[in-house]
């Protein structure tokens, strides 16, 4: 199983501004306000997930569960996909393959989930580099206790994976994502709180932990 979570955007935060390198040019724009409820992240993630598919024109009742697809990835979006995400990508990363329909990546899904909350300090990292990167980022917290709105980081495969926690209790965790098995998925939690990834798809992956803004 290979997740192509390569990121074609360079983003660096400086104080109250976000500077983004765009294929040879530099754009500077005000950063979104910090401290918005995690609910905003959850709602954006779900608004994207509702319009993600594993094929460009799914038949009624057949999408990511279509047996003809084999291993499918939800990297296609339909006409109901949030226009602000498409507009954001067009401004901040025009022509970047990772944001394109049919190739929508897990990393850009997470970036898009936070566009109204807080810019992510991503500098071309793949998903499997998030955990080490955020350990040294002021204003961010890493935890083993998930909350809705958290970035859920996964180790496994060539590039790892990232998703957004949308619901959690002692028995299970539900997360939204792109370029993976399903747009919204639930896995059981073990008695120690870790995620049981042995569902036949995520077997070679482990959840490293959860990342959230400090305020």
TrEMBL record:
Signal peptide: none annotated. Residues 103-179 form the Peptidase C51 domain. It comes from the Bacteria. InterPro entries: CHAP_dom, Papain-like_cys_pep_sf. This is Peptidase C51 domain-containing protein. It comes from Dictyobacter aurantiacus.
């Amino acid at each position: 199983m290979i997740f192509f979570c390569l990121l074609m955007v360079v983003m660096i935060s400086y104080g109250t501004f976000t500077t983004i390198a765009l294929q040879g040019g530099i754009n500077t724009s005000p950063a979104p306000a910090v401290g918005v409820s995690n609910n905003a992240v959850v709602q954006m993630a779900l608004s994207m997930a509702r319009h993600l598919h594993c094929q460009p024109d799914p038949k009624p009742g057949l999408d990511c569960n279509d047996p003809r697809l084999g291993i499918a990835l939800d990297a296609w979006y339909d006409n109901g996909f949030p226009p602000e995400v498409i507009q954001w990508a067009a401004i901040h990363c025009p022509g970047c393959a990772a944001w394109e329909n049919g190739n929508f990546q897990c990393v850009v899904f997470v970036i898009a989930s936070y566009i109204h909350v807080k810019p992510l300090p991503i500098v071309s990292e793949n998903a499997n580099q998030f955990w080490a990167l955020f350990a040294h980022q002021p204003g961010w917290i890493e935890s083993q206790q998930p909350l809705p709105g958290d970035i859920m980081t996964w180790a496994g495969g060539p590039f790892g994976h990232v998703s957004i926690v949308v619901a959690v209790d002692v028995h299970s965790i539900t997360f939204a994502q792109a370029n993976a098995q399903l747009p919204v998925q639930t896995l059981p939690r073990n008695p120690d709180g870790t995620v049981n990834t042995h569902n036949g798809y995520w077997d070679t992956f482990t959840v490293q932990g959860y990342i959230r803004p400090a305020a």
